[in-house]
User: What shape does this take?
Amino acid sequence: MDFRRASTGLTGLDEVFDGLRLGDNVVWQADSVAAYRDVVTPYVAQARHDGRRLVYVRFGQDAPLIDDLTGIEVHELDPSLGFELFARTVHQIIAEAGRYVFYVFDALTDLLGSWHSDMAVNNFFKVTCPFLYELDTVAYFCLVRSRHTVETLSGVRDTTQLLLDLMQIDGETYVHPLKAWGRHSPTMFFPHLIQGDEATSITSSGASARLFAALNVPQDRTDPWRLLLDEGWQTLHTGDAAAQDAAKELLLQVLLARDARMLQLCRESLTLADILTIGSREIGSGYVGGKSVGMLVARAILERAPAEPGTTPLAERLEPHDSYYLGSDLFYTYIIANGWWKDWTRQKTPEGYYEAGAELHRKLATGHFPPWAREQFWRMLEYFGQSPIIVRSSSLLEDNYGNAFAGKYESVFCANQGTPEDRHQAFEDAVRTVYASAMSPEALEYRRNRGLGEADEQMAILVQRVSGDHHGESFFPHAAGVGNSSNLYVWDPDIDPDAGMVRLVLGLGTRAVDRTTQDYAHVVALDNPLRRTRVEVDDLARYSQRQVDVLSIVDDELTTVAARDLVQTDIKADWSLFASPDEGWAARLRELGRPVTGPPPMILDFAGLLRRTELAEWLKRALATLAAAYGYPVDIEFTVNLLDDGDFRVNVVQCRPLQTRSLGPAVPMPQLEDTRDCFFATDGDFMGGNVQLPLEYVVVVRPAEYLALDQQSRHAVGRQVGVLNRMLRSRSFLLMGPGRWGTTMPSLGVPVNFAEICHAAVLCEMTYEEFQPELSYGSHFFQDLVESQIFYAALFVEQPGVTLNLAQVLDLPNELTSLDSSAVLDEVIHVARVEGMTLHSDVVGQRLICTSGGAAR
Assistant: This one.
């Protein structure tokens, strides 16, 4: 026997296409699973007779294809757990089985019962078939006729070695080879009548015509995903409540959410009509992702919220949206179409997590899209016309309870100008950028730190029309910001934390979520919107927004303009709503001995908007309404646009649970007779609840020495801090440095990414000459601190009530080189091992004291 040849178990059929060869994937297109079983039986019997190793991959709902499973390795899988886990498990089974194995798979059509997506079935076959071929296996698959789209049949035909049409007509069985790779004969591609062990070619035109006329199978089939939506619309109009509930539940679970809490929130907030509308605006199939779900649920909650007595319903001031969604299945289709599935599966292994991740990060930004997807991109862009759009990440795990992924994935603005071809290219580039961000170093580190390294994290995409209007040659909303229903950063004992807080900017909301620029958003405590923060009271001009992010219609890109220049632009609103005269300008000039001439410059303080409109009250009510529905504090992103009559509209573009811990019970505060007995103390300007937190190490970036460094050396400090962060991850340690931690600009503070400080117990920013902390409440950096439960403090050392005794730590031995023998920055970074140092905080009294540690152990 030729070991590399094999048999179907039917001699006549073997003669038709010269038998089976190692490496063959055999796909049967059959009328039913029962018909498929008829050809599986002789194949299994022959493999047993030849002493082949047999593996049966079982996932269907019908009875097993093989009656006698003696001596056969059976793997029972659950496809409802999702495409990735299913495909990876099959890949692992094949890898462990090795070479020369014979396989039987249940009918691929059975996967539609769990996935409802022919695209997913096609993807599964495309990643499984080549791997089987590489290992010189023989595998049987089945597609039930009339259940799959032309695209899936085409994909299977392109990938498999043998595609055989199995027909049962008038009690007779026929096999019609449609593809037989590497074989040819004059009669191979005729239909063949199978009778017992014999196969007779049907070569006459008349007999062939009668045979195929009897089959009468339409060629074009609608994707099961679209059929599911069509059936949902039909159910919606029947009035059958039970059928509608069943349709809603199914669509919830395959389109919106898998997490139990988010699924329940969707169930309570969205109607069947809502869900069907979402599905009708999806490109591809699969989940629309966490960011899309958060936005949709929040809007539904606000639209249906009952009005309180004497108030305007929240829905009346909610701007409508018409978003599109790129389904999560398209992400896998993109990976598979470009031949990167092996990289994807390798990235899920411990040894390939970062290496393959880096390779995918590069590759994902360079691939091509299937023709059908590109066509649907065209249709979507034709719908939006030249309205600017934003292409936003919306991964499966994003914005869920427990994992915000704040700022870890990309969002890309498309000004959407130029020719249709230019706009189409820009959109595809934006999608590639978002896809690539799924494998960015920051995202990989975040997922690993959150225990999600091997989780199924598909990247869906949310495409939103940018909220705003044309103002001169720029496009932007009048205002934008982030809001939190629970104010975790209380700088004044009179502040009501439950009233919430917002971080407000003029123009696009990018400046509300960043802490990387020499600029400041306006922080608003919603219980008293005109209350100023501590730093604003002292110097409002310094701690206000100076730059505005806009979309340039002329340059077709996101750009930044000076606020003072924008004041000269007609923004279709009263400028006094956003800017006020700088009251301290004249006094500063007089102090400098300079003449006071002309009107004072304007400061963006939003005082008019907060005083003369109901915006603050609307945001306060909206945040409270969302938090009540979520049963959890929430974080939102929003835009504000003013109408011609002076009224406003708010567009809620994102909503997620704010992963905060409670304030905790009050703790006893130490009584200090002399402030020299503590490391530092401050009234207010901290976040993290009531704590009594013992510390083992303190890491200080020495301010004067850091100031003396050049830019490159300051970046080296950030990298060294990252090394210490990993080394001390199991210890309770405090990080302290001048200015802003997490900035990208060394002139403002210590340039680290969050992964380089994520294990700290306490993060402390302090003033030193030009270095200033930024109370970046609501930014992505803030979200990271809250989610990681890192206590935060800002020390404005020149302010009353603030004490800092750096010598208590700097006089202790520097452990830097003991921890890292390669470290070369010990004159700048001081690592002290402390004994008895404890951080105490009282949120109600707004007092923070870090009691002194003893000598190094």
